[in-house]
Amino acid sequence: MAYPVPGTREPFLATRRLDAWWLAPLAMGISFIVFIIYATWSALHPMGDDPVTYHVQTNYVSPFFSPDLSKFIPGFTWSPALLILWIPAGFRLTCYYGRKAYYRSLTFSPSACAVGKGQREYKGERALPWILNNLHRYFLYIITALVIFHWIHFFDAFRFDGHFGMRLGTLVVAADTIFLTLYVTSCHSLRHLVGGKIDCYSCAAAGMARHHAWKGVSILNDKHNLYFWLSLFTVGFADLYIRMISSGCWQDVRFF
Amino acid sequence: MPRTVKMKVFRGEKGEGAIHDYNVHIDDGMVVLDVIHRIQATQAPDLACRWNCKAGKCGSCSAEVNGKPSLMCMTRMDSLDLEKPITVEPLMTFPHVRDLVTDVSWNYTVNKRIKPFKPKAKEADGTHRMFQYEVDRVQEFRKCIECYLCQTVCHVLRNHGKHEEFAGPRFMIRTASLEMHPLDVEDRVPFIKEEGGIGFCNITKCCTEVCPEHIHITDNGIIPMKERVADRYYDPIKMLFRVLTGK
Q1: Is residue A121 included in any domain, yes or no?
Q2: In total, how many domains does chain A have?
Q3: Is A85 within the bounds of a domain?
Q4: Could you say which of B67, B131, B158 has the minimum Cβ distance to residue A18?
Q5: Which of A181, A200, B4, B122 could share a disulfide with B182, CB 3.0–4.6 Å?
Q6: Helices marked H in chain B — which ranges?
Q7: Which DSSP string do the residues of B101-170 spell out, in sequence order?
Q8: Is B97 in the A-facing interface, judged by CB distances under 8 Å?
Q9: pLDDT reported for residue A138
Q10: B150 C-beta neighbours (distance < 10 Å), count
Q11: Alpha-carbon distance A129 to A120, whole Å?
């Protein structure tokens, strides 16, 4: 048997690993595909008769449809979701953890460590389209505005007919808002921007404050992958929950 | 509990060879390297393997155990499924020498291409001054034992053989350890983009998964370097600012 020499391209998915290496990429791949199908369908099917009305019968606002930028575009009759969903989609697509997840589960580059990739040319992130991942920081800037809208809707979710209250939907909206915030504030680009780029904190302006900021983001960054998935699931479920409440299929449980 | 296990060990020279089967009696607490040594002592005295400290600190006994790049001295036998044969093979990413030994000298040539530490000018009192909190993050990278498991598992080298274009994770963190040092003034960002080929890394984190020193190679080393490369080469606003200000 000839032993593989450097650069040998093992057949696709060939490996001598004995563990269940395929489980994580399979689970991630299924999660991505289910989310993409649901989000696309939901974005193209706004709730209510009016295509830009998306919070019928509730004070909850679906995260897929807020903010409603279609108000600023006269004659825009498509779903308002189409005007904003590119922001979180771009943020997740260029996210350093998101890249690992979809390279492994959707592009199989590689599917898992020490698992074959087959014969294929590889340019990595030095050529289109993946070189565009270097623009992650710009999506960070834009999604920060989106997080602010999520917090506005979070506080709105405590108001029922002008009175303070709490229902199950409040918790659903809260989970979406909190996990999205944690996901964005644990971002690798943010970690770099707040202080990671500095070598000598004692020499830099506001160096100690920026070191503290870098340390804080670093603590959150350690769980960036967890927040990625939690925020993906909770944002999707928040939209589904609000859709079901609005359509009358589900009843919102009232706590007080 | 003492028992007999089936070991499948690659034997051969310069890439030519075959898997050989050995039935080996093992005792409690043994690691894979112990079993290889027992094969040498009892069945195959000419079995070649590289080892030194047997404590996970010299980085010599790297091999692929059941297909996973690992240190043989840190892989306990009781962590493996002993009902199945255990396969031990040399590192796949480097030229094969004999049996479990590979030629890792390519790594030393890459290391030589990295610009060395260049301290800034001394302060008025004739000293260099830095603080522990500033060097904490580069000290993580100094834990590297150069076992080259990260190089071995990296698909850019392993599957695509980009040895000429990509320095590999080990040298990404070596560069990061110098580049982030509070006293260093050398600029290695052009190196890491061009010669180092950081753009080949697609952050799938296999290097981090196999690191026996648990260094956060990707999150703390490669990604911060990618961000510095993005600052310099891919951020249109910063590039425009530099053009306008000449800085």
Answers
A1: yes
A2: 1
A3: yes
A4: B67
A5: A200
A6: 32-42, 106-112, 132-141, 149-153, 155-158, 169-179, 189-193, 206-210, 223-229, 236-245
A7: EE--THHHHHHHTSPPP-BPPP-TTS-----HHHHHHHHHHTT-----HHHHH-HHHHTT--TTT---HH
A8: no
A9: 96
A10: 27
A11: 16
Between CA A70 and CA A195 the distance in angstroms is 37
Q: Which residues have CB under 8 Å from B98's CB, separation 6+? A: B12, B13, B14, B48
Q: Give the nearest chain A residue to B104 (CA atoms).
A: A6
Q: Which residue of B has its CA nearest to A121?
A: B160
What is the model's pLDDT at position A48?
Answer: 64
Domain assignment present for A207: no
pLDDT of residue B124: 92
Strands B3-13 and B16-26: antiparallel
CA dihedral of residues A226, A18, A116, B105 (deg, nearest 10): 90
Is the N-terminal amide bond of A129 cis, ω within 30° of 0?
A: yes
| Pairwise CA distance, residues A235 & A41, whole Å | 15
Q: Are the CB atoms for A118 and B160 separated by under 8 Å?
A: no
Distance CA B20, CA B2 (A): 22
Considering chain A, what is the average pLDDT of its residues?
A: 90
Kindly identify which residue of chain B lies nearest to residue A21, measuring between CA atoms: B68
Query: For residues A219 and A195, what is the distance between their CA atoms, to the nearest angstrom?
Result: 13
| Structural domain containing residue A181 | 23-186+223-247
CA–CA separation, B220 and B173 (whole Å): 8
Question: What domains can you pick out in chain B, each with its CATH number?
Answer: 3-100 (3.10.20.30), 106-245 (1.10.1060.10)
Cβ of B224 and A122 within 8 Å? no
Give the pLDDT confidence of B100-120 residue by residue, as tens digits.
999 999 999 999 999 999 999
- Contact B173/B221 with Cβ under 8 angstroms? yes
Residue B246: pLDDT band with limits 50, 70, 90? confident
Q: What is the pLDDT of residue A247?
A: 83
Segment holding B96, helix H or strand E = strand B96-98
How far apart, in whole angstroms, are the C-alpha atoms of residue B155 and residue B229? Answer: 21
A53 pLDDT band (50/70/90 cuts)? very low
Task: Name the token pair of A95.
Answer: 């996210």
Tens digit of each residue's pLDDT (9 = 90 or more) over A107-126: 999 999 999 988 788 999 99
CB pairs under 8 A between A and B: 166
On the CB side of A120, CA atoms within 13 Å amount to 15
Distance of CA A65 to the CA centre of its chain: 15
Question: Model ipTM?
Answer: 0.91
The whole-angstrom distance between B74's CA and the closest CA on chain A is 18
Least CB–CB distance from A104: residue in B93, B199, B204:
B204
Comparing A53 with A45, which gets the higher pLDDT? A45
Residue B247 clears pLDDT 80, i.e. is over it:
no
